[in-house]
Design goal:
The complex is a heterotrimer.
Chain A: H1 2-7, H2 9-27, H3 34-60, H4 67-83, H5 88-112, H6 117-135, H7 147-154, E1 156-157, E2 160-161, H8 162-180, H9 182-192, H10 194-199, H11 204-230, H12 241-251, H13 263-282, H14 288-315
Antiparallel strand pairs in A: 1-2
Helix pairs in contact in A: 2-13, 3-8, 3-9, 3-11, 3-12, 3-13, 4-5, 4-6, 4-11, 5-6, 5-11, 7-11, 8-9, 12-13, 12-14
Chain B: H1 24-39, H2 46-71, H3 79-96, H4 101-125, H5 130-152, H6 159-162, E1 168-169, E2 172-173, H7 174-192, H8 194-204, H9 206-211, H10 216-242, H11 253-263, H12 275-294, H13 299-321
Chain C: E1 7-18, E2 21-32, E3 36-40, H1 47-54, E4 62-67, E5 70-72, H2 77-83, E6 85-88, H3 100-104, E7 111-112, E8 115-116, H4 118-131, H5 148-161, E9 166-170, H6 178-193, E10 197-201, H7 205-211, E11 214-219, E12 222-228, H8 235-243, E13 267-274, E14 278-285, E15 290-295, H9 301-308, E16 316-321, E17 324-325, H10 331-336, E18 339-342, H11 357-362, H12 378-391, H13 408-420, E19 426-430, H14 438-453, E20 457-462, H15 465-471, E21 474-479, E22 482-488, H16 494-503
Parallel strand pairs in C: 3-10, 3-11, 6-9, 9-10, 15-20, 15-21, 18-19, 19-20
Antiparallel strand pairs in C: 1-2, 1-4, 4-5, 7-8, 11-12, 13-14, 13-16, 16-17, 21-22
The chains are: A mainly alpha, B mainly alpha, C alpha/beta.
Chain lengths: 319, 325, 510
C-alpha cells in the first residue's frame, strides 16, 4: 500500500503543490499578487535548474552536496570579474567554466578515485565555500553588475522572467534526454543495477563522471541567474540549497537507491519546497522552522525509502 | 607502510611492539608543533598552548561518540548541530524554566541522547545509511537551535551559571584534564574491556559479530545516544564559556571531527580507530587553525585547507582500507 | 538433427586450481552445433568454474577452447560476448526499474530522427516475446512487476537478440515452478531448432532427461563421460556416473553403525517454513549424534541451516533447544543456549581475517572471560588460544597472526575453533570442508567425530556425499526445499542417497 503510493511520487509532489496553492490562496491575501508570483519564479527557477543536475545524479545512485557552494563561487567570481571590467558574455563563459571545473573535480573524486560521494562532495563544498569567500569583500555587495547582466534576472518575455524560460527550456531538454536518448536511458540502467550494467558493457564510471560535470555546469547557470536577479553578489547565495534540491528530488520521485526519477519530478519537488518557503514568509512563520520541517521530511523520506527496500528484500527471501 | 594499519586489540600480553604507522597522527601533531614553535614567536607561550588545549577540550566531546560509531562503520554527521543543541537546550532550561545549571546540563544531554537513540533505532531497524539520516537530523536540529536562540534574544547567563567552566586545577582548566582522563579511560576500555572492544568486532565484520552472539544493533543504538549526549555536553560547556547561547556554537564542527578521526587512524569502512589518536586528531586541527590564524590566513582559506585535508584523508583511507572485494 | 561429426565448441584439456584446491583437472568436452548439451555434477564438481572460463571470468591454468575451429581465450565477459558466447547467470542481471522491452534491448538501437522509437521498441519486444509464447508479458510492464520466471525469460531473450553462437544457462529453472520450468524448456527447444547451441546446467533430472541431446558429467573436477540422451540412458546411469567413486580406496570409511544414543533430543526443529525458500521442515538431533543433511544445489539446505539458527527470518515453525522453545529466534539466543554455527563461507562471515587469532577466539566468549567492569581476563584468553591452536594443530607463526595470512585449511580450522571455544552442546556446521586441501579435510573430520564422541550434537550440512557417509549417523536428504527422506548408517549407498536428492525417492520406478 505504502509502496504503491510511494512509487507514484511525481503525482505526490503535484498533489502537495496543489494543496499548498489552495492553502495559500485562502490563508494569504497577497499570494496571487504580481510581486509574490515574481518572487516565486525567482526562487523556483535557479533551484529547479540545479535540481535537474541533482536528479540525474540520483538516477545514477549518487548525489552532490557541493552545488550550493558552486552557486556561491560562481556568484562571487562573477562579481570579481565584473570589477575587473570584463564584459557580460566573457563573465558568463568564465563562470560557467568554473562551475564545470568544480563539477569535474567532484566527478573525479567520486567516479575515478571512488571516494564516498557524501564525504567527497562535503569536502568540495567546504573548499568551494572557502574559495568563494576568499574572493569576497564587503564592498562587492554594493557594486551592481552591468545592465545587460542584470537583464538576465530582471527582463521578461511574455510575462515570465528569462530565467523561468531558461528553466522551462532545460526542463524540456532533460525530459527529452532522459526519455528519448540512449545516453539518457543508460543512467537508469546504471542506477538500477550497477553490476548488471557493467556486465552488459556500460561504462558506469564515465557516465557518473559526466553527470557530476553536468551538475556543476547547471549549478553555475543557476548561480549566474540568481546573482543577476539580486543584481550584486552576496555571501548568502546558495546556503542550504543542496539540501533543498536533494529533498525536492526525493519528494519528486527520485530515490537514493537510484534508478528512478524524471526531470518533471525535480521541477515539481522544487515548486513544493519554494511554495513551502513562500508559505512561511507570507504567514509570517519563523523561517528557521523551515529547516526543521525540511530536515524531518528528509529523515522521513529516507526511512520510508529504506522500509520499502527492506520489505522488498524480505519478500524476495534475501534476508 | 599504510597510514591506517589495523590495530590489534592488545589481547596477546607478549605483544608490546608499537605499531609506528598507526601513530602517524602523533608525528604530524609534533611536526606541526615544532614548526609553529620555530616560526612563530607568539606560539610557544604557556598562555597560547593552554588556550589551544582549552579549545580542543570542548570539541573533543563531539568526537568521542563519533569515534565509537566510526569504529563500527557508522558516521554521525549530526555531532555539530547536537553540540549547538546542548547550548540551546541549556538556555531553554535556564531561561524558560528557571532550572539551575546543574539540572539544565544533564537534562539537555538527556534530550539529545533520546534523539540519538531514535536515530540509532531508525538506522539499525531499517538498515539505513547513517550518513543520510544524520544529515537530515543535522538540518532539523540546527533549525531548532536557531529558533530557540532567537527567542532568547541575546540573554546572558548569570555568573554562577557559567563560571564553573573556567575553574582550574593545578593551574589547568578542568575541561582539559577531563579530556585527557576521558580519552585515557575510553582508550583502556576500547582495548581491555568487552563492552567497548566489541565495537571493533562489529566494525570489522558485522555478520560475524551477529553470528557469534553479539547484540550489534543494541550497541549501535547506545553509541548513537552517547554521541548525541556527549556532543550536547560539549556544547553546553562551550555556551557557558561564551556566557550566552549562540548559533555559531558547533557550526561546521562535523567537518573538523570527521577529519580528526580519520587522520587519527579511523576508517569510514569501520574496524579501526582509537580515542587517544582521535584526541590528537582534534588537537591537530586546533593547532592547524591556530597556526594558520597566526600567519594571518583568513578563516575561508582555512576552510579550503581543512576541506582538502578531509578529502585527502578519506582518499588515503579508501586506498588503504577499502575491502579487497 | 545436430551434426555430431565436427565439434562446434571444443573444450581442450582445461586445468584450473585455486590455491591447493584443484577445481578442474584436464577437462575436455566437445559440443556440436545446435545441440542442448547438459553439464552435470555434484556441487563443487567444477561446472561453474568451467563456465566461468568460457565466459572469460576466470583464466585457465592450462588448456584452451575452440569455437568453430578457432582457438580462443576469453579475457573478459565483453570479450566472450564478442566471440558469441553469452551466459545467463543464476543470479539474475536484470533491471527492475526498467520496462521489459528495455531489458530485452538495453542498447536502444531503434531510432527515428535521432530519438528512441518507443513504438518500434515495444513492437519488436512484443514480437520476440510472442515468438517464445510469452504473450502474457507486456513489453511496457515494469520489470519489477513480472514474475521471477518472466524475468528469467526476459534475460534469456536479451542474450538471444544479441544473436550468440553459444548460450550458457546456469540453473535457469532454480526459481521456477514446474509449469514455468516447462515453458522455459519449450523455449529452449525452439531455440535449438533455430540452430543455437546451448550449454545447460541443472540439477533437475527430469528436465535434463527431457531436453538434453547429450550429457557430460564432471566429478571432483574431472571429466567422467559424455552420454548421448537417445533413450538408452536412464536417470540411474547419470547418478552412477555422478557418484561412482571407488570408496574402498578413499580416505573415507563409510559409517556402518549409527551412534544411536537415546534420551531427550538436544535440538528439535518443527515445521520451519518460508515462502519460496523452505517447505515445512522438521528434524531432531540427539546428544552425541552427527545428523547429516544432504542436498544438491538449490535444494534449500543452506536456507534451512540459516533459518534454524535465526540468521534468516522464517514464516512459520519453531526451534526447541533442550526442551525450551527459543523465541525470539536470534543467533544471540542460540549462542546463549549453547548452539554454535560454522558458516559455509568464511569470506562473508565466521572469521575476522584482519584481527589476530587470539581476538578471533575471544569473540564468542567475551562475556564469559570478563571480570570487573567487563575487563577481559587476557592471560586466560591467551592460554585458551594457545590450547586451541595446539589441539587443532593450527600452523601459526604467533598468536598475533591474522587469519588473512593463513592457508585456507588453517583458516577453516581457526573458524571451527571459534565455534568450539564456548564449549557448545550443539554445533551446526555448514559445508565444513569446502575449498580446503585433503590433509586439513581429514583433520576436520577427525575433530568433528571427536567432538561428537564427547556428547555434542552436530547437524552437518554438506554437499559432499562421501564426507557425510563417513561421519554422519543419519543422513536426511533435501530436494526442492523439502526434506524428502532419511537414510541410516548401515544402509548408506551413494546411489540411494543421490536418488533421493535427484528424483525425491529411493525407488526409481515411482
Amino acid at each position: 500500500m505504502l509502496a504503491k503510493l510511494f512509487r507514484k511520487n511525481e503525482s505526490i509532489a503535484l498533489g502537495l503543490c496543489l494543496i499548498l496553492v489552495v492553502v495559500l490562496t485562502f490563508a494569504s491575501g497577497v499570494f496571487w499578487t504580481q510581486s509574490n508570483l515574481n518572487s516565486l519564479q525567482a526562487s523556483i527557477s535557479p533551484t529547479a535548474i540545479m535540481a535537474f543536475g541533482m536528479m540525474i545524479l540520483l538516477i545514477c545512485g549518487y548525489f552532490d552536496l557541493s552545488i550550493g557552494s558552486i552557486m556561491l563561487l560562481v556568484g562571487i567570481l562573477a562579481g570579481r570579474l565584473s570589477q575587473l571590467g570584463l564584459n557580460t558574455p566573457s563573465i558568463i563563459v568564465l563562470v560557467l567554466l568554473a562551475g564545470l571545473a568544480v563539477g569535474c573535480l567532484n566527478g573525479f573524486l567520486v567516479a575515478i578515485l571512488k571516494i564516498n560521494a557524501l564525504i567527497a562532495t562535503i569536502g568540495v563544498q567546504y573548499i568551494g565555500y572557502g574559495l568563494a569567500m576568499t574572493m569576497w569583500d564587503k564592498e562587492m555587495q554594493h557594486r551592481k553588475f552591468p545592465a545587460n547582466f542584470i537583464a538576465l534576472g530582471e527582463d521578461r518575455f511574455f510575462g515570465l522572467y528569462y530565467m523561468t524560460w531558461i528553466m522551462l527550456a532545460l526542463l524540456l531538454v532533460f525530459t527529452f534526454f532522459l526519455r528519448y536518448t540512449a545516453a539518457g536511458r543508460r543512467l537508469y540502467f546504471v542506477g538500477g543495477n550497477r553490476e548488471a550494467a557493467r556486465l552488459i558493457g556500460f561504462n558506469d564510471r564515465r557516465i557518473v563522471f559526466l553527470c557530476y560535470a553536468c551538475t556543476g555546469l547547471l549549478a553555475a547557470v543557476a548561480g549566474v541567474l540568481a546573482v543577476a536577479r539580486i543584481q550584486s553578489p552576496t555571501q548568502y547565495l546558495g546556503g542550504g540549497i543542496h539540501m533543498t534540491c536533494m529533498i525536492a528530488c526525493v519528494i519528486g520521485g527520485g530515490s537514493f537507491a537510484g534508478g528512478r526519477g524524471i526531470a518533471l519530478g525535480a521541477f515539481l519537488g522544487v515548486s513544493f519546497m519554494s511554495l513551502l518557503t513562500n508559505m512561511f514568509n507570507l504567514l509570517e512563520m519563523n523561517t528557521q522552522l523551515q529547516n526543521v520541517v525540511v530536515g524531518v521530511t528528509l529523515v522521513a523520506v529516507i526511512v520510508i525509502d529504506g522500509y520499502v527496500t527492506l520489505k522488498k528484500m524480505r519478500a524476495m527471501g534475501k534476508i | 607502510m599504510p597510514l591506517n594499519t589495523g590495530r590489534t586489540l592488545g589481547l596477546n600480553p607478549k605483544r608490546r611492539r608499537i605499531d609506528f604507522a598507526s601513530w602517524v597522527i602523533l608525528y604530524l601533531t609534533l611536526a606541526l608543533f615544532f614548526f609553529l614553535s620555530a616560526s612563530r614567536s607568539s606560539f610557544l607561550t604557556v598562555g597560547n598552548i593552554h588556550s589551544i588545549l582549552y579549545d580542543t577540550s570542548f570539541r573533543f566531546f563531539a568526537a568521542i561518540g563519533f569515534t565509537l560509531l566510526i569504529i563500527m562503520g557508522e558516521l554521525d554527521l549530526s555531532v555539530g548541530s547536537m553540540f549547538g543543541f546542548g547550548g540551546a537546550m541549556m538556555g531553554l532550561f535556564i531561561f524558560n524554566y528557571q532550572l539551575p545549571v546543574e539540572a539544565a546540563i544533564p537534562l539537555a544531554m538527556l534530550v539529545a541522547g533520546l534523539i540519538g537513540l531514535a536515530v540509532g533505532f531508525l538506522v539499525t531497524t531499517f538498515r539505513l545509511n547513517s550518513m543520510m539520516v544524520t544529515i537530515g537530523v543535522m538540518m532539523a536540529v540546527k533549525g531548532v537551535n536557531w529558533i530557540l536562540i532567537q527567542r532568547f534574544g541575546g540573554r546572558q547567563l548569570a555568573r554562577a551559571q557559567y563560571n564553573f567552566v573556567t575553574l582550574e586545577l593545578f593551574g589547568i582548566k578542568w575541561t582539559i584534564l577531563v579530556m585527557l582522563v576521558v580519552a585515557l579511560i575510553f582508550e583502556i576500555f576500547l582495548t581491555r574491556s568487552r563492552h567497548l572492544k566489541q565495537l571493533y568486532y562489529i566494525g570489522h565484520n558485522f555478520s560475524t559479530s551477529v553470528l557469534y552472539g553479539l547484540n550489534a544493533n543494541a550497541v549501535k543504538c547506545a553509541c548513537f545516544a552517547l554521541s548525541a549526549a556527549l556532543s550536547a555536553f560539549g556544547g553546553a560547556l562551550m555556551t557557558a564559556r561564551l556566557k550566552h547561547p549562540h548559533v555559531t556554537v558547533g557550526a561546521n564542527l562535523e567537518i573538523s571531527v570527521i577529519t580528526a578521526a580519520v587522520i587519527g587512524g579511523a576508517s569510514i569502512f569501520g574496524g579501526r580507530g582509537s580515542m587517544i589518536r582521535t584526541m590528537l586528531g582534534v588537537l591537530f586541527v586546533s593547532l592547524l587553525q591556530n597556526g594558520l590564524t597566526s600567519f594571518n590566513i583568513n578563516t575561508y582559506v582555512q576552510q579550503i585547507i581543512l576541506g582538502a585535508i578531509l578529502v585527502l584523508a578519506i582518499y588515503i583511507d579508501v586506498r588503504v582500507n577499502a575491502k579487497k572485494a | 538433427m545436430p551434426d555430431l561429426a565436427s565439434p562446434f565448441l571444443d573444450i581442450r584439456n582445461i586445468t584450473k586450481s585455486f590455491g591447493v584446491v584443484k577445481a578442474l583437472l584436464d577437462v575436455s568436452i566437445s559440443v556440436t552445433k545446435g545441440e542442448i548439451h547438459t553439464v552435470l555434477g555434484e556441487n563443487g564438481a567444477g561446472k561453474s568454474t568451467l563456465m566461468k572460463i568460457l565466459t572469460g571470468e576466470f583464466a585457465p591454468d592450462t588448456g584452451y577452447f575452440e569455437l568453430e575451429g578457432q582457438r580462443l581465450r576469453a579475457t573478459s565477459p565483453a570479450a566472450a560476448h564478442a566471440m558469441g558466447i553469452h551466459m545467463v547467470h543464476q543470479e539474475l542481471a536484470v533491471f527492475e526499474n526498467m520496462t521489459v522491452a528495455e531489458n530485452i534491448f538495453p542498447y536502444h538501437n531503434f531510432k527515428k530522427a535521432g530519438c528512441i522509437d518507443y513504438h518500434r521498441l515495444f513492437q519488436e519486444a512484443r514480437e520476440k516475446l510472442g515468438l517464445f509464447g510469452l504473450k502474457t508479458i507486456a513489453p511496457e510492464a515494469p520489470m519489477a512487476s513480472i514474475s521471477l520466471a518472466g524475468q528469467q525469460m526476459v534475460e534469456i531473450l536479451r542474450c538471444i537478440v544479441a544473436e550468440p553462437k553459444v548460450i550458457i544457462l546456469d540453473e535457469p529453472t532454480s526459481g521456477l515452478n514446474d509449469h514455468e520450468a516447462d515453458m522455459l524448456l519449450e523455449i529452449l527447444r525452439h531455440l535449438k531448432a533455430t540452430g543455437l547451441t546451448i550449454l545447460y546446467i541443472s540439477h533437475r533430472f527430469k528436465e535434463i532427461m527431457a531436453i538434453s541431446d547429450r550429457i557430460s558429467i564432471l566429478r571432483d573436477g574431472r571429466f567422467v563421460t559424455t552420454l548421448a540422451n537417445d533413450g538408452s540412458v536412464s536417470e540411474n546411469d547419470l547418478i552412477n556416473n555422478m557418484v561412482g567413486r571407488d570408496l574402498s580406496r578413499s580416505l573415507y570409511q563409510i559409517k556402518t553403525t549409527g551412534n544411536a544414543k537415546s534420551g531427550a533430543p538436544l535440538l528439535q526443529v518443527r515445521g520451519l517454513a518460508k515462502a519460496r525458500a523452505l517447505n515445512d521442515s522438521s528434524l531432531d538431533l540427539n546428544p552425541g549424534e552427527i545428523l547429516g543433511v544432504f542436498g544438491l544445489e538449490g535444494s534449500g539446505t543452506s536456507k534451512l541451516s540459516r533459518m534454524m539458527y535465526g540468521l534468516e527470518t522464517s514464516d512459520a515453525g519453531k526451534v526447541i533447544v533442550k526442551g525450551r522453545h527459543i523465541s525470539p529466534l536470534t543467533p544471540r539466543r542460540m549462542v546463549a543456549e549453547g548452539v554454535m554455527y560454522l558458516n559455509n563461507n568464511r569470506k562473508v562471515a565466521g572469521l575476522l581475517p584482519e584481527l589476530p587469532v587470539t581476538d578471533n577466539f575471544s569473540l564468542p566468549v567475551l562475556q564469559k572471560f570478563s571480570r570487573f567492569l567487563g575487563f577481559l581476563d587476557l592471560p586466560r584468553l591467551g592460554n585458551l588460544a594457545t590450547n586451541f591452536v595446539k589441539a587443532f594443530a593450527i600452523a601459526l607463526p604467533s598468536l598475533a597472526t591474522k587469519p588473512a595470512n593463513l592457508s585456507g585449511g588453517n583458516q577453516q580450522k581457526v573458524m571451527l575453533s571459534i565455534c568450539l571455544v564456548p564449549e557448545p552442546e550443539i554445533l551446526i556446521v555448514n559445508e565444513p570442508t569446502r575449498g580446503i586441501d585433503v590433509g586439513a579435510k581429514t583433520e576436520i573430520h577427525r575433530f568433528l567425530l571427536d567432538i561428537a564422541s564427547r556428547g555434542v550434537g552436530i547437524v552437518m550440512f554438506s554437499s559432499e556425499l562421501p564426507e557425510l557417509m563417513s561421519l554422519a549417523d543419519r543422513i536426511q536428504i533435501m530436494r526442492n526445499n523439502s526434506i524428502v527422506g532419511e537414510v541410516k548408517a548401515g544402509d548408506y549407498t551413494e546411489q540411494a542417497i543421490m536418488r533421493y536428492a535427484a528424483v525425491g525417492s529411493d525407488n526409481l520406478a515411482v
